Amino acid sequence: MSKQEIRHPDKTVVTGAYSSGVLINGLLFISGQGPLDLHTGEVKKGTIEEETLLTLAHIKKIVEAAGGTVDDIVKCTAHLSDINDFERYDVAYGSFFTGIRPARTTVQSGLSDGIKVEIDAIAYIQK
Prior knowledge:
127 residues, 6-stranded mixed sheet
């Protein structure tokens, strides 16, 4: 029952005291991801749709680094800086997942550096 750190394969900068993902007993817990340039740590500001899709792309790469696929994601929690962006965020989010979409919670939160969205996820990785 040992836990394993899962790193984003493209991340070359330290953005905080956390692991991108932690895998234990088939469950992958992915830390909150945002629309960052993973080589500089800078925010890649864009529309809510652009920021959502970039954030989900980061989550996808972490899941793949653990040996899974997007279909293995079972739960997401999304934080929006402005809940009025929900409909546009939801369309972008919905376009990312095919088949059975993960369970999801979406709330409005105070986010740093002017980002519009942060998403964390849980995946079940079968090996």
